[in-house]
Design brief:
Largest sheet: 7 strands, mixed
Number of helices: 0
Shape: globular
Order of helices and strands: EEEEEEEEEEE
């Protein structure tokens, strides 16, 4: 019923830019938080950026701070991740996620999110 669909991944050169999009639908509640996680080969899924829609609090992983920007369009039920100055270390499957409730202290916790997109692959070549 509730579905999130991520798109926008692809192959880019180091230093390039890419915007990921996530459309969410099939819900009858407001999402408290939206987030992007990523998982590189052999690594744990990690938070990239999260946004609380209650107060606008935003989290960025240190590795992407200053390069990535998260935003949402509530009217269109979309969340975006604008990625700039991409590096090979950014190569991963990127997942969007949403939850109707989450404590701010748990905004970056994987288990806080009830709904997930299918993921979109971002590959950055050197």
């Amino acid at each position: 019923e509730v579905q999130l669909q991520a798109s926008g991944g692809g192959l880019v050169e180091t230093g390039g830019s890419l915007r990921l999009s996530c459309a969410f639908s099939g819900f009858s509640f407001d999402f408290y938080a939206l987030a992007w996680f990523r998982q590189a080969p052999g690594k744990e899924r990690e938070p990239v950026s999260c946004i609380s829609r209650s107060d606008g609090s935003i989290y960025y992983a240190d590795s992407v701070k200053g390069r990535f920007t998260i935003s949402s369009d509530n009217a269109k039920n979309m969340v975006y991740l604008q990625m700039a100055d991409l590096k090979p270390g950014d190569t991963a499957v990127y997942y969007c996620a949403a939850t109707p409730r989450v404590a701010l202290s748990a905004l970056t916790i994987l288990s806080s999110y009830d709904y997930w997109g299918q993921g979109t692959l971002v590959t950055v070549s050197s």
